[in-house]
Amino acid sequence: MIRFFVFLGSLLVIALLAALFAPPFIDWNQYKTRFENEASRVLGLPVTVDGDTSVTLLPLPSFTFTDMKVGQTSDGVPLLKAESFTMNVELAPLMKGEVVIVDVQLQKPVFDARLDNEGNIEWPDIKQRARIDIDREDVALENVSIEDGALRLRDERYNREFLVRNIDAQASARTLTGPWRAAGTLTYKNQKARMRLTTGKWQDNQSITLKLFAELQSQPYDFSFD
Prior knowledge:
The protein is mainly β. It has helices at about 10-20, 30-45, 90-95, and strands spanning about 1-5, 45-50, 55, 60-70, 80-90, 100-105, 110-115, 140-155, 160-175, 180-190, 190-200, 210-215, 220-225.
């Protein structure tokens, strides 16, 4: 389970009560702005929802936001965009104002990363960053599903781009700052592979350790990156 003791508590309680007592034609899009504000506080980057919002109650309260974008690269491309973001939450804790998220699903997410001329990962400047007034150490992720995702890495040093497609994976994090774990399958240059990813914790000097193991299904050798 994923425990958010602050994140979206009041929003989800209001939405759930509305779902129980309001007519079925209620417009859930009125909650987009609240979600954007709370998600921006947690991630420290601007979050926008350009699509619609929907809520279902059974078998678990479920909240879905479509066409979600997070942050922005130097050329205006979102750091992360997803066709939809869905979270399923437990009912009993929600009625007490505590959000216990059973799982999170990202449909067709696209991650954009860029290496600058010195080989460092670009990170949004301070003007983009949203105010963080919660402790990221209190936010744990234990069941995140990525379906049909993609990772685009642009290397400014050599003017080339790497594209990993068809990412289907399960991910978790002890806290938002790491360590992270992920395992699943992907495609690179039409080669299918199984992968395992682990990281350390995000450091104050804007660095993080990363280990990636990839097993090509059509070749008799593996890759390991550290």
